Amino acid sequence: MSFQGTKINKLNGGLGRFTASDRVVCLIMGMTLEGDLAYNEAVELLDINGVEALGITAATDDANSDLAFYHLSEMFRLAPEATFWLIPVDKTKTVAALVADAALKAAIRGIKGINVLAFGGVNTPVADALVDAVAFQSLVTSFLAEYLYIDGIFVEGVGAAEAIAVAAYPDLRTITAPNVSYVIGQDPAIAGIKAAYELRAAIGTVLGSVAVRKVHEDIGSVDIEEKPRTRKGEENYSLTDEAQGRWLSSALSDGKAFETLTEAEQKSLTDKGWMYVGSFNDYPGFYWNGCPTAVSKNSDYAYFNFNCIWNKAARIIRKTLIPRIRSKVPTDPATGYLKSTWIAGAESSVNAALDVMVSAGNIEGKDVYINPAQSISEETPLEVKCQVVVGRIVHEFSVDLGLTNNM
Predict the structure, then answer these.
(1) Which of 19, 284, 323, 330 has the smallest number of Cβ neighbours within 10 A?
(2) Cβ atoms < 10 Å from Cβ of 198
(3) Is 348 exposed, middle or buried (0-12, 13-18, 19+ CB in 10 A)?
């Protein structure tokens, strides 16, 4: 007998896709240690002043060429009302060593409710993404075995010294790492500060973009549903901040300027599952191109926000059903089936628990069904069928516009 409780089986194919806060976000940062910081020890951050109190500043970024302060400042700039976590790691460690590090896993596990991770400041080159993404996915899988649901891992895609042609970028959609997203968006103003920054990507910017959005929102949305107090009333939620000189232009992590990319090249990067930053002609500001994951577009989990929805539902269902573990399930003496009144109560409790996702706009509806014709035992779990209805994401508009003499 164990304490696994409720096992949630992840279904795929239900979406029919063809060829504030629910976020607990942690930056795992390859960096030089400052003050009392220690490798593989998680630190909670409430605001940018707390970051500076730890000894992480623009000056230490410059001295160590780490960009730790830059990433953390971006997180709080975009999500000023959020709480973040930081775990420093040795920046010389390989991806294989990081995902196998028991001390790092323990630090992650120790953050209550952790569900979004990002790796920055370590050696994660774009050229190795197909192998590294699978390694990072193994970290998600190991936590899933403990019923710790990680919505996604964002990885800083380090550019190549000799820029790779867009056509030669690896196709992340050809592998199976549905909880891993590669970030290659770069703010040229930061990359131009010194040579050590030239090939780095804006991993902190993507974490701030995640934390400020609801579970169901696409990271590339031009506007967001609930803006921080400092930006209420704005038409959009652009990454651009003219006062601070942030995101006045954009590039890939190899320095290739966004404005030099053809429409076909932009589409190619998106189709291959890379996250970068761009802008719309005749519209202000810069935005992420979306939140693809390293898995086929045919998968229901080909985008980060759908992973978030599934994981939130899984956590709610698990928490709702665990109190019923090892409790009596009455049966109908005439048929031997599970009693309809008990089934109705169990279905109702799960449905009611999922109502919070409907109210938050995470899902449009839900359905729970328990087949009464089940024989259950210590070895045979009671099967529950759950479905949640997700909303659609509009990626572009097609408008028929013509001229006429009258209506």
Answers:
(1) 19
(2) 18
(3) exposed
- Measured CA to CA, the distance from residue 311 to residue 153 in angstroms comes to 14
Residue 325: inside a domain, yes or no?
no
292: DSSP letter: B
- 3-class secondary-structure state, position 12: coil
User: What is the extent of the structural domain holding 206?
Assistant: 25-296
Q: Which two tokens stand for residue 306?
A: 């759908």
Rg, C-alpha atoms of the chain: 23
In a domain, 388, yes or no: no
For residues 311 and 151, is the Cβ–Cβ distance under 8 A? yes
Expressed in angstroms, the distance from the first to the final Cα of the chain is 74
Tokens of 22: 């629910």
* Within-domain flag for 383: no
- DSSP summary character for residue 177: B
Whether the CB-CB separation of 119 and 203 falls below 8 Å is answered with yes
How many independent structural domains does the chain possess? 1
DSSP 8: P
pLDDT along the chain (407 residues), means of 10: 66 54 93 96 96 97 97 97 97 97 98 97 98 98 96 97 93 98 98 97 98 96 95 95 97 97 97 98 96 97 96 95 92 91 95 95 95 90 94 82 83
Identify the three-state secondary structure at position 231: helix
In a domain, 386, yes or no: no
Characterize the bridge pairing of strands 116-120 and 43-45: unpaired
Torsion of CA 49, 55, 56, 60, to 10 degrees: 140
Q: What are phi and psi of 120, to 5 degrees?
A: -135, 160
